[in-house]
Amino acid sequence: MTTRIGSDDGHRWDSHNAWVHLRKDWQQLSVDALANADARVIAADKAAVVESRRQIAHVQGSHLVDVTV
């Protein structure tokens, strides 16, 4: 059995995966900020959001997403 999502090159799957990670990382940052988490936790969350944004820029192009942390 074979499962195929998107095109043969995997671009659509990579794009979807990158956006899912950005959403997860942004939600974690929001939750931790609202809970007044330690500054190190917030810094790690911000770094994860920036890395997720970098992945999206790599897959889709840097002009297609703007995330300010």
Quick rundown:
Helix content is 67%, strand content 0%. It is an all-alpha fold and 69 residues long.
Plain-language structure description:
The chain is mostly helical. Helices cover 67% and strands 0% of the residues. Helix 1 packs antiparallel against helix 2. The mean pLDDT is 84.
Low-pLDDT segments, ≥5 res: none
Radius of gyration: 14 Å
Largest sheet: none
The percent range for helix content is 55-70%
* Overall spatial form: elongated
Straight-line distance between termini: 42 Å
How many beta-strand runs? Answer: 0
* Order of helix and strand elements from N to C terminus: HH
Record keyword descriptors for this entry.
about 70 residues, mainly alpha, elongated
Question: What's the layout of helices and strands?
Answer:
Elements: H1 11-34, H2 39-60
